[in-house]
Amino acid sequence: MKINASFVLHLSLFILLFHTYIYAQSFQNLKIYQADDSVKISYDIMGGRENDVYKVDLEVSPDGGKNFSIIPKNAYGDLAYGIPRGQNKYICWEPLKDSIELSGENYVVQIKGKVLGTSPDVEFVPVTGGEFMMGDPFDEGPANEINKHLVRLSNFEIGKYEVTNFQYSKFLEKYGSNKVKDGEFAGEVMVYPMDGGLKFFQGQWKPDVGFEYNPVVGVTWFGANEFCKFIGCRLPSEAEWEYAAKDQGRKVRFGNGQDFALSTQINFNSNNDKTFTFAEKGENRNRTVNVGGFFPSKLGIFQMSGNVWEWCQDWYKSNYYFNSKKDNPSGPVFGIYKVIRGGAYTSTANGIRNSARSFLAPYSDKTDVGFRVVKEVH
Fold first, then answer.
1. How confident is the model at residue 107 (pLDDT cuts 50, 70, 90)?
2. Is residue 60, in this structure, part of any structural domain at all?
3. Of 88, 115, 142, which one is at a domain's C-terminal end?
4. pTM of this prediction?
5. Can you list the positions of beta strands (E) in the chain?
6. Per-residue confidence at 162, pLDDT binned at 50, 70, 90?
7. How far is CA 47 from CA 5, 53, 172, in A?
8. Bridge partners, 319 (sequence order)
9. Domain range for 141
10. Taking the CB of residue 253, how many other CB atoms lie within 10 A of it?
């Protein structure tokens, strides 16, 4: 069997023989032992970039490594999404709770690590179209979102992550300008230098150090729109954005599929003077984080609530919900402002709800506004 591993450990554990395969070169000092009815694993994530986050998977083979058919359900610790670099990481697995009694010498434990959000290309998640009630299902928001109405959407694909500083810098390198070159919006500035975003240095646009895989900020609507056009895509309509944030139209409050907001799960300003029944006071990071920094939704989409507001295709109209068409609504024909959705690290829990609506002039550049991409499915 071919193993792409930095090292392989063979450890005798009572009557168990565990082989541990580490696929990411940054994983070191792995140890495994048995404690009562649990299997405990410790490891370090070293090297790489300071702000890298990982998806760590645990798999078990009952046949000496031929087939990793057991995916532990009762395992916890530094496992799954958003695991940062550092030492003394741990995983605890309780196999009896998974109805698995480990005996013999053929069990193999495999740990795999993948750095999240670092692809130079946009990664997509398929979204099956359908009908849903657009608007605030909890009747908590202001007048511009309370008129719930039925919307029907076609299939589409949406960016798994917000577009990163790294991806946008590569686009600018190929495009050759930070202004729209031609068409309706020719001459409009696409992006401005910004801390936590891009910097213009020695004739090139480069990500701010340490923010390479954080969402691009300082980008105008014109810049977001031109990026999408350049890769053969477009910005999401407001309806598509909300449908995806609601896990294909479910009644759910936040973009991670939860109805309660925690700062350990969403990057928002949870340390504020207001008290919300659907949030807990916690950390205010006061900056963007890696686009893969928290658990995704059930659809596999990351951070549709918090981190940065996201530009949508639509012009904004406060009462549009009262007269929008049912099939694939795309917003008013014209307007002054563009829709932004999702809230940001600067927002309270109220502002990061799936149904919360806001707007900006298309030429605006902000430290807390970015975007993600939609691809049409024909």
1. confident
2. yes
3. 115
4. 0.87
5. 7-13, 16-22, 27-35, 38-45, 53-61, 75-77, 80-84, 86-93, 108-115, 124-127, 130-134, 149-153, 156-159, 198-201, 204-207, 309-315, 338-341, 357-360, 369-370, 374-376
6. very high
7. 16, 12, 29
8. none
9. 119-378
10. 25
